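Suppose a colleague, Dr. K., hands you the sequence of a protein chain of 229 amino acids and asks what its three-dimensional shape might be. Before reaching for any lab equipment, you can write down a predicted structure in token form. Begin with the sequence itself:
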Amino acid sequence: MKKKNNIILTSIVVVIILLVALIFGIVTRLGNKKTDDNEVTEITTNDKGSVAILKVDEEENPIEGVEFNVYDINGNFVHNMTTKENGITGLENLPLGKYYMEEVSGPEQYEIDATKRYFEIETAGQTLPIKIVSSKEKGKLAITTYDNTGKTLAGVTFEVKDEDNNLVDTITTDENGFAQTVGLALGEYYYTEVKVPENVIIDTEKHRFILNENDQVIKKTIVNEYEGV
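The predicted structure, expressed as tokens, is then:
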């Protein structure tokens, strides 16, 4: 009788141990997984990739100091990154999925590009390259020329040079006496008359102007006198 009781007790203990082991295994598995829409997906360290950013200007020169924020597809902040001297920055160990980034700051002479750029890390170990071209902030010089009788003067040609004396544009007034440069990067410049119509006195003086705001237009009015008048 005593032997029979020992067998029964042993069987009960074994059943209890099995139940405890089963319950512990279920809890452990759930603790190591994430749920999404009632599906269980396990994220491993291999399910990650990288994004590499190259920031250049319109002449393909790298731009240092451009700062980006990266967000997941739901708008949650992920990381901040800033380009180095070679114009490159990046982010590693991104879990597979969709993201976007926004430019938040940069050098003063460049426009901040607030475009949301979406990208997706699709495969483990992937490095996604993204090249972004930035435009410099620019302004223009607009000149209107008149003769000494008050009429607009066509055919006056100007050379525009930067502070290092490099020629950046040549413009000639039209029938309305008007001429305008192309977009010039912000900075210090000079313009000089280099050609005028017959019997008009040329002004060889260098005239200085400074562009310090994006889309700024410096307007100049010039009066040229006729010879002998």
